[in-house]
Amino acid sequence: MILDKFLNLQGTCIQGYRHLENIGIVFQIESKNKKAACPRCGLESDKLHQNHRHLVKDLPLSGQPVYLQVNRRQFKCGNCQKPFSEELDFVAKKRTYTKRLAANILEQLKEGDILNVSRINDVTEEEIQRMIEDIAEEITEPDLSELKRLGIDEIALVKGQKNYCAVLVNLDTGKLIAILEKRTQEELRETLTGWGKEVLEQIEEVSIDLWLPYKNLVKELMPSAEVVADRFHVMKQINQELDEQRRAEKRAVEAQKNKKQKAEKEAKLEVLKRSKYSLLKNEEDLTEPQKIKLEAIKEKFPNLKKMQELKEELRKIYETSKNPTEGLLSISEWLAKSSIVFTKSCQTIRNWFGEIISYFERRTTNGVVEGINNKLKLIKRRGYGLRNFRNFWVRSMLSWHLVC
What is the pTM of this model? Predict the structure, then answer.
């Protein structure tokens, strides 16, 4: 009785146990039930056909590996006249580990990678793969009944290969709603229409990056929703154009052939060395060496000076404008003096002007989505055993929609 409570497997009794050196503790157990229901007709039977014992790995006890020698009995159905194996609540059919061990391992996978988790728990990577597949069937669709603000973004499944997954997030709860294997208008359309008209009509805001197919689809399926161009993606484009100019300045200096200006050339190249983050980081976040580097850049490169200062000015507009009118006027003024140096970015801002100004209404951003994307990237880095999109999807959804 004490051992039964210690093992804590409801409906079972321990018939014996032994400690095997270099292996662990082995408990012999079987169900307390005297009958079992036939899976074909549902009739209960107490006619024992045969005993069938097999070994199942369980959670460790005090650091000791634990195995259960389970008697999964076979009964004979009085109605069907065919034998059947009894169902056991603690272990699934054709599995060599208990459900609670699988749940514990899946919980570890939220913060670890398959290879290390398999070593720590003395299970194979293939067994963990089966655990992932099994739990995938239990992941249910998230509740969308209260969805008001939707964030849509993307993440690269494999860096550098341009195979982007679309990421959908509830901006109010901070929960991942879905990951789509492809970032295409067709796949996103299929997912959104699958939510139903009622859900789409209740969505008030959709925050997106600066990708036109997202915008067109949202306006088509959710015409009453406010489309907001995510401020971080606007600033990302500004930073990209600033960095392009930094690299162009470096190429121009390197191309100089005048030997008399050799010292000046070397001085400029030294200033540009490791200068990227001094230009792109928020000014208040710069380290002292980066501040010194920034001042040196401004002294030598007037174009970079102007672009960096305009970049900071736009960022402050986002942070300090109190309402849409103030935001509209400030960004309009910024555009007037930035068009010469930020040619591409200014054109993008003009193309998305209404959606950019919408930010100042409720200050909705994809910041929550970016946080989720960072967590997804961590899952990717840890997921040495993630061989395909489905595994990535399961590992990701585990972190938000399943408590093991």
Answer: 0.73
